[in-house]
User: What shape does this take?
Amino acid sequence: MKKFIIVLLLICLVLSFASTICAAKLRFAFMPGIADPFYFTMEKGAKAKAEELGVELLVGEYPKAWGPEYQVPILKALVARGDIDLLFTAPTSTEALIPVLKEIHDSGIPVITVDTYLGDGDYTKPSNYNFPLAFIGTDNFLGGQVVAGQLALLLGGKGKVFLENTNPDVSSVMGRELGFRAGIKIFPDMELVGVEYCLDLQETAATQVSAALQKDPDLEGVFGVNVFSAQGAHQAVVTAGLEGAIKIATWDATETLIEALKRGEVDLILAQMPAEMGALCVEWGVKHLTEGAEIPRKVIPGFFVFTQENVNDPEAQQYIYK
Ligand code: T6T
Assistant: This one.
């Protein structure tokens, strides 16, 4: 009888240990690039998928400004907890984030880069930045080409245009600039007269675009490559009283830009799929950790282009950042 009770107790012990292991939730961490509607929407998509798959999602404090000096300390504090199973983050520099993310990877935490990548983003070739499991984000070069083509169409294939960018060492916005340059080159009568970098400060973008408008009174189009540069460009054109006269192409479907598009002050908006990006990070992370699945090194969600014609379409509403 005594033997039977001991065996029973042992079985209970083993079962309760096993169930503790089974119940242990995966814990993922998400570190955004900056506090803006693009990353807020990404967080929502990631949270919904995490809830669906039973993953605990920790979100790092949103940096108030763009750059490694803001992002790295928050990132370090987030992983210092020591209980993270996977990290997905948007590196705020192609080079400066390599050492810190490599250190995190070497400490046993797999890393996915989302929205932006390290180096040239080719994680399949030998390099000091090929350690992330994957890059999940928009084909920014293609998007830049599409924007150039649409802007050229709006301008009848001719005219001077200006580009407002943010940071020269960030893969996403540089991809947009390179794609835009390539797209504009196709039209012999179109000229890109200038490019400025606002370092993700809307006021700086507005000042730079105002200066460009004064320098080139015959400027006909402006492309703002992200939330801050686009909203700053819009602000400058409205302040100059040129809304409608200057064609404005923008990137990132914030409610502010969508409202401006509805009023006819903005002409097109390229919307990325931030919620899908966040959800894909969680989904692939779980597959990798629980099934040993090999993640494609590049996962590229699509994009949607809002125009004054389709902005009120019911199916288009899902692409507005929330
Ligand atoms: O455009 C997005 C993001 O894709 C980019 O990397 C940085 O700027 C945004 O967050 C918008 O502000």
In short: The chain has ten helices and twelve strands. Residues 140-271 form a domain with the Rossmann fold fold (CATH 3.40.50.2300). Residues 12-22 have pLDDT under 50 and may be disordered.
